[in-house]
């Protein structure tokens, strides 16, 4: 499955266009490698997603083409969430 579609279906990111934009800006890594929105993801991949000052690391546990909101969280496991300190 394409990275941007996985992020939307799993509801990690609400819109596919936003997922594409974030990936194309270089803020997503798949298994510690720079990812594009068109990159393929498979079960077992580790995603590192940068949201401004927050970074979320997840492991893909399932690939489902379409899912209900209540089942979306079963597609991944959150390994770590980091928040950058704001130094002024």
Automatic annotation (TrEMBL):
Superkingdom of the organism of origin: Bacteria
Pfam families linked to this entry: S4 (PF01479)
CDD domains membership: S4 (cd00165)
InterPro entries given in the database record: RqcP, S4_RNA-bd, S4_RNA-bd_sf
RNA-binding S4 domain segment(s): 1-61
GO molecular function, one term: tRNA binding
GO biological process: rescue of stalled ribosome
Keywords tagged on the record: Protein biosynthesis, RNA-binding, rRNA-binding, Stress response, tRNA-binding
Quaternary structure note: Associates with stalled 50S ribosomal subunits. Binds to RqcH, 23S rRNA and the P-site tRNA. Does not require RqcH for association with 50S subunits.
Family: Belongs to the RqcP family.
Purpose of the protein: Key component of the ribosome quality control system (RQC), a ribosome-associated complex that mediates the extraction of incompletely synthesized nascent chains from stalled ribosomes and their subsequent degradation. RqcH recruits Ala-charged tRNA, and with RqcP directs the elongation of stalled nascent chains on 50S ribosomal subunits, leading to non-templated C-terminal alanine extensions (Ala tail). The Ala tail promotes nascent chain degradation. RqcP is associated with the translocation-like movement of the peptidyl-tRNA from the A-site into the P-site.
Listed name of the protein: RQC P-site tRNA stabilizing factor
Organism field: Latilactobacillus sakei (Lactobacillus sakei)
Lineage: Bacteria, Bacillati, Bacillota, Bacilli, Lactobacillales
Record gene name: hslR
């Amino acid at each position: 499955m394409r990275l941007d579609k996985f992020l939307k279906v799993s509801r990690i990111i609400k819109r596919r266009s936003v997922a594409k934009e974030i990936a194309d800006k270089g803020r997503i890594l798949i298994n510690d490698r720079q990812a594009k929105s068109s990159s393929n993801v498979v079960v077992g991949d580790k995603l590192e997603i940068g949201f401004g000052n927050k970074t979320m690391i997840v492991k893909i546990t399932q690939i489902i083409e379409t899912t209900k909101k209540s089942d979306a969280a079963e597609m991944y496991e959150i390994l770590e969430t980091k928040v950058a300190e704001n130094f002024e």
